[in-house]
Q: What sequence folds into this?
């Protein structure tokens, strides 16, 4: 992210349900834990790695202001999601989507 990157999501409303469904599916199938700061830990298999990279690439295109860092360590995949000041709720929404936490009709994510 650069200082000029706007805090705005370019994801179309018709794409949002599909993106959230994919995040929930990855979480349901591979999520091992979520730490209090919102870092997600997943199984380190090839399918999970590929799916997470696809979601990260897609989120990077629509929400360039978010930081999405995927690392492999201790036999797992760790996804850290960060946001600039004022956009923390959007980062939290992504964590919640992977964790399968439901939101109301006004759910907003990348």
A:
């Amino acid at each position: 992210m650069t200082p000029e990157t706007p805090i705005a999501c370019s994801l179309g409303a018709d794409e949002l349900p599909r993106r959230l469904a994919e995040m929930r599916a990855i979480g349901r199938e591979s999520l091992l834990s979520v730490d209090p700061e919102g870092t997600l830990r997943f199984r380190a298999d090839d399918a999970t790695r590929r799916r997470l990279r696809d979601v990260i690439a897609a989120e990077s295109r629509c929400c360039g202001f978010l930081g999405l860092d995927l690392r492999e360590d201790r036999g797992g995949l760790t996804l850290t999601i960060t946001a600039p000041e004022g956009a923390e709720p959007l980062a939290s929404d992504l964590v919640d989507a992977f964790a399968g936490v439901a939101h109301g009709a006004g759910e907003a994510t990348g």
Notes: The radius of gyration is 13 Å. Helices lie at 16-30, 46-62, 88-99. The chain has three helices and four strands.
